[in-house]
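Late entry, EPU complex.
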Amino acid sequence: MSAPDPITVDLSTVWFAAGYALRAHNTFGFDVRARLACRIDSEADLIEAVRDPRAAGLPMLVLGGGSNVVLTRDYDGLVLLMALHGRRVVREDADAWYVEAAAGESWHEFVSWTLEAGMPGLENLALIPGTVGAAPIQNIGAYGLEIADRCASVRAIETATGAVTEFDAEDCAFGYRDSFFKREGRNRYVITSVTFRLPKAWQPNAGYADLSRALAERGADGAPDARAIYDAVVAVRRAKLPDPLLIGNAGSFFKNPVIDAPQFDALFAREPQIVSYRQADGRVKLAAGWLIDQCGWKGRALRAAAVHDRQALVLVNRGGATGADILELAQAIQRDVAARFGVALEQEPVSL
Ligand code: EPU
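Prediction complete; structure with ligand written out below:
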């Protein structure tokens, strides 16, 4: 972590001066600053930081990898830089391993570690940017798997009281790119660790079109093991999704919209090529990337804010874009998609 200007080193917490640069702490690479920042290495640090007089009355922003946020301006509050580390098998029974990882662990490194330790089950989620602590908030998912499928519990601290709270998977109220922490729990809890249940009766989850194609290309489509799936997921993501270290982005910028069956039937009559997935409740999920692509936005730019040229659902910072540029581009896309398809696209990352 780049750590200029520590202003004090207390018993344990490290505070950074006003004007702390957030560029390295958000995957869009926006060049904004925080009024105050504090590095959080432990739960004790977190409790100390939120009770510190310097934090009194200030809004707080928790940043893990900063992979799901659009920072449109300097942050006039306290940024908590989550640096809690550690991962361990907490218990094992006949059916599963229970593995806990601290909030500040890199998600992808954690996935790789579980596989190397012989505990498969997260391989479909390889290479997702961000940290373990951020993963449950938006219920990260890819290639037919979501955190919801593997999360046993989430440990968090309530900032108002400093109380440690354990949420089981049901309490987390996971939905598509959604959870309790994104709604009622927003700004109330800071996640400090997540425990995963990795079933020993492992089954490949290789049905997703891009993934099965990549497995076939590698001759691993018969009975792929977890490593083959991991390798194929990494290959697909590298081919389609921009690496935030090379080009700023926050993954999918919009959710795939879900519409009612009658609206879908009317749309399908006009647009028979539309990419759609029927849901268990009869509603229909549409591929937002396809809608945006059809509107001609793929690869187009508005100043330095652009639509990725290999996945239209991803907006990128070609260098020097601001959060406002990205939001202006997003609004232009939303207008075009609404005008042509009558469908509203909901933004996925949080803007501040
Ligand atoms: N498509 C196009 N043009 C595009 C992009 C997509 O025609 O420019 C079509 C594809 O051909 C495909 C369909 O749209 O038929 C879906 O595309 P893709 O398989 O790439 O997945 P997605 O629905 O666009 C979702 C997730 C991704 C996740 C992939 C794979 C959301 C918002 N996004 O994208 O998650 O990696 O599925 O499971 O649900 C993320 O959340 O940041 C993210 C990257």
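The chain has seven helices and 22 strands. Will revisit in the morning.
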